[in-house]
Design brief:
Layout (H helix, E strand, L loop, with lengths): L3 H20 L4 E13 L3 E4 L4 E6 L22 E16 L21 E6 L4 H5 L3 E4 L2 E5 L4 E5 L2 E10 L3
Antiparallel strand pairs: 1-4, 1-6, 2-3, 4-5, 5-9, 6-7, 7-9, 8-9
Bound molecules: zinc ion (ZN).
The site of zinc ion has 8 residues, from loops.
Length: 169
């Protein structure tokens, strides 16, 4: 009788091997960029009506952000500052995950003509970070999330699987 248990054991082992590769740092680096956060410039008064800087210093003379006149040097007259948050995570990276199954025929989703697909497998603790990301950089290529990441479990271990498409060719 073919043992179901043995098959399970085999795939468990294979999974563990893959997972160990990630843990040992053989996984690749994926840089996650969260949506930029905007906040009011600390140096100048904001003009809420025109959504720009009044170019009037709101800090006193002697303060490092003080300016006497002209365009606010801190925000360049925009009145708003933007910060980009990025975080580097480790994961298994698979470019064109559908290609092997489809006889090397490059699979592309509607609307992403010719775009390269990429799958990453990583720790489930990154779920929110990836779900809310603006974009990611994998192997130096800017990619956008194509589906919400899903959790896949095998043998008691869980991995987060996320699919992206390259925004450049
Ligand atoms: Zn300013």
């Amino acid at each position: 009788m073919p043992s179901n248990r043995r098959i399970k054991f085999k795939s468990k082992k294979r999974f563990k091997k893959r997972w160990d590769r990630v843990v040992k740092g053989l996984g690749r680096s994926v840089v996650i960029y969260s949506p930029p956060t905007k906040y009011e410039c600390p140096a100048c008064f904001y003009d809420k009506v025109n959504r720009t800087s009044t170019n009037v210093s709101k800090v006193p003379l002697g303060h490092p952000l003080y300016f006497a006149g002209g365009r606010c040097p801190t925000c360049n007259g925009k009145g708003i500052l933007t910060t980009v948050k990025k975080r580097c995570i480790e994961g298994i990276v698979i470019w064109n995950p559908g290609a092997a199954k489809m006889n090397e025929f490059t699979f592309s989703e509607a609307g992403h003509e010719g775009a390269r697909q990429v799958e990453i497998k990583t720790d489930i603790c990154h779920k929110d970070l990836i779900t809310d990301c603006d974009h990611v950089v994998i192997d130096g290529i800017i990619c956008k999330l194509s589906d919400l990441p899903v959790i896949r479990g095998l043998g008691g271990k869980h991995l987060l699987v996320a699919h992206f498409f390259a925004t450049e060719k």
